[in-house]
Every structure is written in C-alpha cells, then in structure tokens.
Amino acid sequence: MSLPQAFRRQAENCTALGSPFMGRLMAGLGDHWGDDTAVERLCNAWPGEIGPAGASLPLRLAGGLHALVLTGQDASLSALYPPAETDADTLAQEARRAFHRHEAFFLDWLTHAPQTNEVRRSVALIAGAALLTARHGLPLVLSELGASAGLNLNFDRFALDLPGQSLGAADPLFRLAPDWTGALPPGTGFTVTDRRGVDLNPLDPADPDHALRLLAYLWPDQPERIARSRAAMSAPPAPVDRGDAGDWLARRLKVPCPGQLHLIYHTIAWQYFPERTSETALATLDRAGDAATQDAPIARLSMETDGQSPGAALNLTTWPGGDTEHLGRIDYHGRWVNWALYPAALQWLFNRGLPVHATPRTNGDADAGDTEMGFAAGCSGGACGGGGRPLETRRNHTAVGCQHAL
Q: Which residues on neighbouring strands pair with residue 240, listed in sequence order?
C-alpha cells in the first residue's frame, strides 16, 4: 500500500467513525503528498506495512499535527482546525508546511506508535460487570490486557445511562449514553476490589507528555471525546505494568482470589498481540479456568474485531465451565451497542427457534410516560410441547408465551 492509498483508507475509516474533519485532512494529504520535506521522505522510505494494519503513518502524522494545535505551537495550523470549517486542499497544504516548520518535532513523534485509550469502550465493561455481578454476586478483581494508560480500569467510576436505568458510579466522572438496541443488561450494582493492567508501553496520565499523546490521537472535531478523556485522567491512576500481556497474565492468575470474581478483559487489543503472547494468554486462561470454583470464578470479556461488521464482537467466557456467550456487537468507539444476550426466559425460547422480538412499551408500574424495553415471544402450547400458557414477568420487563420458558 502506498502512502496516498493509506491516507485515503484512513479518510474512509475516520469519516465512518464520525470525524468529517479527519476525513478531509487524510484525503487532502493523500492527494497532495510529496517528497519535499524530511518528514515526507522519512515516511516514503518507511519499511513494511504503513497503513492501519501496520505502522499507521497517517494517524501518527495526524496525531503530531493535533499535538501542535493542542499546545499552541502553530497558530497558522490552529486557525484551520475545528471549529473552523476548512477544505481538504487547504488543510493538506498547511499540514505540509507544518511538517517543514516543525521538522525535528515530527521526526521524533513518528518514532512512537499511535496510542489511544478510548474511554467510551467502558460501555461494554460496565454492562459486562453488571451481568457478571447479577449472576455470581461477588466483588470484582480487574485485569486489563493492553491497558494503555489504564483509563478503562476505572470504569466503575463512570456511569452508563440506558433506557429506564443507570449503571456504574452514583457520582460519576462522566456519563456514557450509547445508542442501545436489544435487551438491557441487569441493573445490578458492582464493586471493584482490585484493578491492574499491562501494556508494552504504558502511559502515565499524570505525565504531561503522556497526557498530550493520549489527547492528540483523539480527533479534533470530537470535543466530547477529549472532554471525557480529560475527566478520566483526573481520577487516581490505576496501576499498569510494563510487559508482555501473556507472561503478565500467567503471573497475575497465580494469585488466588477467593470470594471474588476475576475479570480479565481487552478492548481492540488482541489483534496487536504477537502470536506467542496470545497463545500464552489462552493457555493461561485454560489452566486458570480448570482451577476456577463457584467461590472464585474467572471471566474473560473481549471487545475485538472479528472480520464482521458492523463494529466489534463482544464475547464473554466464564469459568468454571468455560462457556462462551456472544453478548452482541459494539461500535469501535462505543457510540452504539447491539446487545444480543436475552434474559434467561427469552434465551430458552431463542434456543428453540421460537420467535422473539424486542419492543418499547410502557411499564404499568412506572410513572406515567416512562417507557422500558419489553420483549414478546411467540409460543403456543404445541410449539413448546408442554401446553404453555401466557405468562409475564415485570421484573425482567419480559413477556413470554410459555411458563416453561422460566
């Protein structure tokens, strides 16, 4: 892939993820890329894959440009950034001039891979924690693989707002309100007793240089992402160790956690692990799963690309047992969730091929005007084989067609 092709591919990705500014910047650089500056010559000679699947040079350059704007080092460039509306050609031409004006800065910046810590992915973590706590009734020990700056290790300090309920902190650093379709997770509170992560290059949000790197890789026309990240960085930092995720997990899981559920999770990180790392982590999880008990269960929650669309797959494996459930799909930046896990009653029907659909309905027990997500499942006595009768459980906001489903 050539650099102009890499820029155009990145432009498409950014536009699809809600950043028209980044779409214009990347497309403009793709059209105007040259060989006139030391920065361009370095990039043109870069070995290996340079696009999103490799070195991500377009994102490295965009992050460097944003860093100059955030620190006020380039007034001419800053004038073209949001809230200004600037066309692709003008953006690209000024960016190339910035490469020349700040040559030493960019030559150093490009030596570091892009590193983000998207806190909106905590949507999946909060929902998963509520689900696990509802099932097991145990406090949580957290271990994050590919934790970056550890911002998502503090997900219990955020709130997730869903139709009719809120999960997470009562006094949160910020609130997350994704577009949610499908069933709702249990409205169960959860407690975190210990948290720790690992990353090959952990960032310290209290270090100004590290904080700048985290913010620079957020997109300039998405100020709400920047505001959330700033709020997350204001929390007491969670410990993140430097090291290989597989080796670290093997050491971490040697420590027993009686009376607690050990939740291991990773969000858009697994694809970047070397093969040896992922194999070591999987073998470690298998061994720990064999030793797990009802008093000390473990779980693996993954939010990762799986070659399908839209978004990423959200899967949960729990031990004892080692059963894996597909919880649904989620936007890479946590903007929406399609929750595929039904309440137990509906799952019974779904597994038997009976029709299940979700509909908004007014809960008669709620205040006037309040709506909650209800579920209707079609079942006749012949379909269930047991002469089932209509039955409704308000607690789960679930209408099912057969008593045997419960």
A: 197
pTM: 0.80
Q: How far is CA 165 from CA 126, 228, 356, in A?
A: 13, 21, 23
Residues 103 and 237 sit within 8 Å (Cβ to Cβ): no
Let me know: does 126 contact 178? Beta carbons within 8 Å.
no
- Classify domain 119-203+236-339 at the CATH topology level: Rossmann fold (3.40.50)
pLDDT tens-digit readout, 114-154: 888 999 999 999 999 999 999 999 999 999 999 999 999 99
Count, in order, helices (H) and strands (E) of the chain: 14, 16
How far is 65 from 401, CA to CA, in rounded Å? Answer: 58
How far is residue 345's CA from residue 375's CA, in Å, rounded to a whole number?
10
Sign of CA dihedral 395, 179, 62, 9: positive
pLDDT for 389 equals: 33
At 295, the amino acid letter reads D
> E strands along 113-239, which residues?
140-145, 159-162, 165-168, 175-176, 179-182, 192-199
Cα(78)–Cα(98) distance, rounded to whole angstroms?
A: 11
- 8 A C-beta contact, residue 340 and residue 329: yes
Listed by start position, the domains of the chain span: 3-109, 119-203+236-339, 344-405
Question: 359: which DSSP letter?
Answer: E
Closest by Cα among 372, 352, 353 to 362:
372
